[in-house]
Every structure is written in structure tokens, then in C-alpha cells.
Design goal:
The complex is a heterodimer.
Chain A (H helix, E strand, L loop, with lengths): L1 H31 L6 H20 L6 H27 L7 H23 L4 E2 L8 E5 L2 E4 H23 L1 H11 L1 H6 L4 H26 L2 E2 L5 H14 L4 H21 L5 H15 L14
Antiparallel strand pairs in A: 1-4, 2-3
Helix pairs in contact in A: 1-5, 1-6, 1-8, 1-9, 1-10, 2-3, 2-4, 2-8, 2-9, 3-8, 5-6, 5-8, 6-8, 9-10, 9-11, 10-11
Chain B lengths: L1 H23 L2 H26 L7 H29 L4 H28 L7 H20 L19 H19 L2 H11 L1 H6 L4 H27 L9 H14 L4 H17 L7 H15 L12 H5 L11 H4 L2
Helix pairs in contact in B: 1-6, 2-6, 2-9, 2-10, 2-11, 3-4, 3-5, 3-9, 4-9, 6-9, 7-9, 10-11
The chains are: A mainly alpha, B mainly alpha.
Chain lengths: 300, 336
């Protein structure tokens, strides 16, 4: 029981990171119907930006909580810019072409970011500096929670609440929902769809960057190819929850994280990469639109 | 009769090339050539699923892995026994080896076709991106499962696979794939595949069993992917699951889309181009993949419909070039 609870805690932490990445996938998909395969690499860039920012800040002594927050914000800002650049440069010219073309371009952007990462950051893994003092807290008997895990959970919950606030309460959020519902109609109603799409990319990329920073806290080894597997799995999480659906992405991410940690803990770590997909196939066969997704009626 | 003559000549020419080429060109170019052939088989077979039937599959590496490992396991474990038996009844060892290799290639293809049938089934319920992610997931599951089978090397990789693949077999199967896919899509059944792509509901209303055709496309595509996997295994003499990650599937999808969805010649050209390009870029060292990726993005933005779109390149295209000014579409096909 103790062990199970411990695994559950680890699973939830890992899952909230997946959820943060999955949010970017699901928002972009909701608006453009594009699987943005470069998203996992934006997460990698976020981790590296934070790495350099943290080294810069910690050069003047230890990192204060405020400094850690600053690192997070720098990473999020940089990646928001990166996301906007990718969208404007690579996806916007393809707005009217077949969807598969944009998908291949996304794979191209992903390859580009990975290989640029190898050149700029170097192929060898870097060790993320400890910007938060590691400490372990016992919540119930035998179940330990690290201070990193608490930070990861707190930051992801705050970010998700913030996202819900933006999407549900602000004007741009309303525009985002309108565009994802029907882009043409939204544009006829006077919504500047291009700006909304750019904004979506900025928000999604910032969330991915936050996930990158948080991963740096818990698994301090970062390298330019770190984004490939989490990126794909976060996409799977988004599909699992029903792609295009924001609460679905959060739910999917959590399920994925917990399932993965449980398989590593109780079965074998070699099956770690398979469980995500096996879970996905089972769920999609039962409910083809994902857990919270709603099917679109077919027009004849 | 004329066709038979053509086939015989083609086989003779390929056999001649098979003996001449290794001594004519250096081994590095030869290896690139073989890989081109294998990629052509993969791209053309995936084009049947993605391009002609419109089912978005990104799990081709999984089928390739099944075929490759099945075929390699057969020649590795059963091959020597079969050869011994054959020698004891007075047959030549090398002839038996090669024929057993071809049989195992086909068995590998069949194993992979069976998997294709399994993957094709969800396409009854899933569409578009949901299907895509299921095929991707399937490929990854296959990879992880093979990684856990110790008899085929597991995480160490499958070593000491006998070398049977040569220029003849690669080109033979490449031509066979092209021939089968081409004849299939220009037949009555081919129209059915195309109709599933164009409008599934309309196709169904016209009495086409869309389910059958979708699953059939998966099965045929998977068969040739399996054969390609077998050829790959017996060329490199070593298999590791890392060769079959989703990046490999992406590579094949890129070939199909870059060549033009639904264009066989497009797939062939793109497969050749994308195999040679990374090799040709070797002199620029670490910038190789950066240039490769930038070029890919540029090509997709410049030609969103793929290099050839839906058209086919043939001798007719060149012959009728002066008369085609201003005309668009699939005109050249009808002129034959």
C-alpha cells in the first residue's frame, strides 16, 4: 500500500508534466487541426533556456525562490517567441494546403530544432543546476514527497488554472474557442484568426517550456534529443483525453504519467514505452474520440 | 507473349547487373543503391495506404520490423537445418540457401500482412489523426515487444544474420511492388481504393465495401513493408529495434508526401532523393541534418502537393510535353 501510494505520487508528478506538454498539442490541434510534432522540441529548448538562465543567475550566488521564478519566466518567454516564429515561418504559408503537408513540415521543424540543438548546445547531456533545495517530506507513513515534486505540482496547477482562466474568461480566450469551433465563421465575425493562432502557439509553447523547466528539476539530465519521446507521449495523452479538449489533455497526461510509473514499478522498465500506446489503443477502440472528446457528426 | 519476353529480359538484365555492379562501383555507392531500393519498396507500399486509399498510417516501421525479424529468425534458426537436409538428398547448398531465403522473405511478408490486418481493423472505427496515432502506437508496441524477445537478440540486437540480399533481389522486389501497386490501382479494385480516399460516404452509398478495401490496403502495404524488412536484415546482417522507431515511419511518410500522395513515380523519386540526400550532405558534417531539415521544410512550402502531385511520370509525359502546354491534370495517362 505504501509503495503503491509512493508510486501514485510519482505518477501524478510525472503526469502533470505530460499534461503541460499535451495542452500545447491539444490547443494547436483544436485550432489548426495540425499535429505539431515540433512541440516536443520546444519543450527541449525550454529546458536548455532555463539551464543557461539558471547558470547566469546562480553565478551571483545561490538561486532565491524569486530567481527560480525568473528562470521559469525567461524560459517561457523565449519559447513563446520560438513558437510564434515557427508558426509564422513554417506553418502560416501552408494554411491553405493539404493538412499532411503541414504535418511533414512539422516533422521538418522538429528535425531542425533537434539538430540545431545538437550544434548549439552540444550532443552530450548537461546537468541542470539545483535551483530549488532538494528536501523530502513524509506525508503519511513511508510516503515521501520531494520538494521538487511539490514545486512541479504547484506550478502545473497554477499554470493550468491560469490557462482555464484565459480560455474561459478573457476576450482572446473566447476568440480561441470560436476559432477552434469554426475558423471560417469566426473570421466572418471579425475575429483576426491569424492573431488568435499566433497567440495559441505562444501560450502552448510557453506551457511546454514550463514543462521543460520542471523536468529539469526532477531529472536533471537534459540533452537535445530529450523532447522526442515525451513529445510523442504527450501527444498520445492529448489523444487519449480527446484531442482539442483542454481538460481532456490534463486528464490524459495524468493517466499516462500514472500508468507509466506503475508499469516501471510493478512490471518492467522495458515496457515503459509500450504501455502508453497500449492504453491508447484500448481506449480508442472503446471510445474512438478519446475520453472527453466529442465526436463530430458527419455531413453527407 | 510480349509481356513474358519483357519480364525474361528484365530478369536477365537485373542478373547481369547483379554480377557486374559490385565490381563496377565502390561498395559505399552500392550500399546506398541497395538502401534506395529498400526505401522504394517501403514508400510505394505505403503510398497504397496513405496516397491511394487515404488512410493515414505512420506505423510502417513496425511492419518492416515484423517482416525483418521473422525472416531473419527463419534463415538463422531454420536455414542451416533445411540446407543440411537438402544437401543429404543431393541438392546444391547455395541454391537451397537462396530459395529458402526467398521463402522466408515471403513468410516474413505474410507475418507482417497478418499484423497489417490487425491494424487495419481499427480503421473501421477510427478516422484521420486518431487512426494515425493508433498506427504509430502499434509500431512502437511492436518495437518494444521485439526488444523483449531474447531469441532475436533483444536489446543486444540480432547478429550473425546470413547475407542473402543482393542487387538482384532488391530490384526484383522493388519492381514487383511497383507492378503490383500500379496494376492494382488502375484496376476496378483500384477505383474502389481511390473512391474511399475521395469520399468514403459516397463510396459506401455506391455499394463499395469500404471496410474491405481499407483493410486490404493495409494488408498489401504491410506485406511489402515486411519484405523490405527482410531484405534490410539480410543486407546489413544485423538488426536492432532502434532501426524501427517511429522516426523510420516518419521517414517513409515524408517520402510519400514529398513525392506526391497517389503518385507511384513520385514515391520512387522521393525515396531515391531522400536516401541519397543525407549521404550527399556528409561533407558538411554536423550541419548535415540541419540542411536536410531546412530543405524539407522549404520543399514542402514550395510544393505543398508534393513533387509530382497526383500525376505519374512516364515516357508519355516526355513525348507529349510540347502538346501539353496549358493543359492540367491527369491528361497524359489517358493518351496511351
Amino acid at each position: 500500500m505504501q509503495e503503491f501510494l509512493q508510486q501514485l505520487v510519482n505518477g501524478i508528478t510525472w503526469g502533470s508534466i505530460y499534461a503541460l506538454i499535451a495542452l500545447g498539442y491539444t490547443m494547436v490541434y483544436g485550432i489548426l487541426r495540425l499535429i505539431n510534432f515540433a512541440h516536443g522540441d520546444v519543450y527541449m529548448v525550454g529546458a536548455f533556456t532555463a539551464y543557461f538562465a539558471a547558470r547566469l543567475i546562480s553565478a551571483h550566488g545561490s538561486v532565491s525562490p524569486l530567481g527560480a521564478l525568473l528562470v521559469l519566466l525567461i524560459a517561457m518567454g523565449t519559447c513563446a517567441l520560438l513558437g510564434v516564429t515557427i508558426e509564422r515561418g513554417a506553418y502560416k504559408p501552408l494554411r491553405k494546403s493539404p493538412r499532411l503537408t503541414a504535418l511533414i513540415t512539422a516533422i521538418g521543424v522538429s528535425l531542425l530544432l533537434e539538430n540545431l540543438g545538437i550544434i548549439v548546445f552540444g550532443p552530450d547531456p548537461k546537468f541542470f543546476p539545483q535551483i530549488i533545495t532538494p528536501r523530502r517530506i513524509e506525508i503519511t507513513r513511508g510516503v515521501l514527497v520531494g520538494s521538487h515534486q511539490i514545486v512541479i505540482l504547484a506550478v502545473s496547477i497554477v499554470l493550468m488554472l491560469l490557462l482555464q482562466l484565459i480560455v474561459l474568461k478573457t476576450k482572446i480566450g473566447k476568440a480561441m474557442r470560436a476559432v477552434s469551433f469554426n475558423r471560417q465563421a469566426a473570421s466572418l465575425m471579425g475575429i483576426s484568426t491569424d492573431n488568435v493562432i499566433t497567440f495559441t502557439f505562444a501560450v502552448g509553447s510557453a506551457l511546454a517550456a514550463a514543462a521543460g523547466v520542471l523536468v529539469g528539476l526532477s531529472n536533471p539530465k537534459i540533452d537535445p534529443l530529450m523532447g522526442i519521446m515525451p513529445g510523442i507521449k504527450a501527444f498520445v495523452a492529448a489523444v487519449l483525453g480527446g484531442i482539442g479538449n483542454i481538460p481532456g489533455a490534463m486528464l490524459g497526461g495524468l493517466i499516462m504519467g500514472i500508468a507509466e510509473v506503475m508499469v516501471v514499478g510493478y512490471v518492467s522498465s522495458t515496457f515503459r514505452d509500450a504501455i502508453a500506446f497500449a492504453l491508447l489503443i484500448v481506449i480508442l477502440l472503446v471510445k474512438p474520440t478519446g475520453l472527453l472528446g466529442t465526436g463530430v457528426a458527419e455531413k453527407v | 507473349m510480349k509481356n513474358l519476353l519483357l519480364v525474361v529480359t528484365a530478369i536477365v538484365v537485373l542478373l547481369l547487373l547483379n554480377f557486374l555492379l559490385p565490381s563496377l562501383i565502390n561498395p559505399y555507392f552500392f550500399q546506398v543503391l541497395i538502401l534506395c531500393g529498400i526505401n522504394i519498396i517501403l514508400a510505394v507500399s505505403l503510398n497504397l495506404v496513405n496516397g491511394f486509399t487515404g488512410q493515414f498510417s505512420i506505423g510502417h516501421a513496425g511492419f518492416m520490423a515484423i517482416g525483418g525479424y521473422t525472416c531473419a529468425a527463419l534463415t538463422y534458426y531454420l536455414g542451416p537445418h533445411v540446407a543440411d537436409k537438402a544437401v543429404s538428398i543431393g541438392l546444391s547448398r547455395s541454391v537451397v540457401g537462396v530459395s529458402f531465403f526467398v521463402v522466408s522473405l515471403i513468410v516474413g511478408g505474410l507475418a507482417s500482412a497478418a499484423a497489417g490486418f490487425l491494424v487495419g481493423l481499427p480503421s473501421l472505427r477510427l478516422r484521420g489523426d486518431y487512426l494515425a496515432i493508433v498506427t504509430l502506437g502499434f509500431g512502437e508496441i511492436i518495437r518494444v515487444m521485439i526488444l523483449n524477445v531474447d531469441a532475436v537478440g533483444g536489446a543486444r540486437g540480432f547478429t550473425d544474420i546470413p547475407r542473402f540480399t543482393n542487387f538482384f533481389w532488391v530490384s526484383f522486389f522493388a519492381f514487383l511492388t511497383i507492378l503490383v501497386v500500379r496494376n492494382l490501382v488502375t484496376s476496378t479494385h483500384g477505383r474502389a481504393f481511390l473512391s474511399v480516399r475521395e469520399d468514403e460516404i459516397a463510396a459506401e452509398a455506391l455499394g463499395i465495401n469500404t471496410t474491405n478495401y481499407k483493410v486490404l490496403a493495409f494488408v498489401i502495404g504491410a506485406f511489402f513493408a515486411g519484405v523490405a524488412g527482410g531484405l534490410f536484415a539480410h543486407y546489413l546482417m544485423y538488426l536492432h529495434t532502434n532501426s524501427f522507431t517511429f522516426m523510420k515511419s516518419f521517414e517513409v511518410v515524408i517520402m510519400v508526401v514529398l513525392g506526391g500522395m497517389g503518385s507511384i513515380t513520385g514515391s520512387v523519386i522521393a525515396a531515391g532523393f531522400l536516401t541519397i540526400l543525407p549521404e550527399a550532405l556528409r561533407p558538411v558534417k554536423e550541419f548535415r541534418m540541419v540542411i536536410y531539415a531546412s530543405l524539407l521544410i522549404f520543399l514542402m512550402i514550395a510544393r505543398p502537393q508534393g513533387l509530382l502531385g497526383m500525376r505519374e511520370l512516364s515516357l508519355h509525359t516526355f513525348r507529349s510535353l510540347p502538346f501539353r502546354m496549358g493543359k492540367k491534370g491527369r491528361q497524359p495517362q489517358k493518351q496511351s
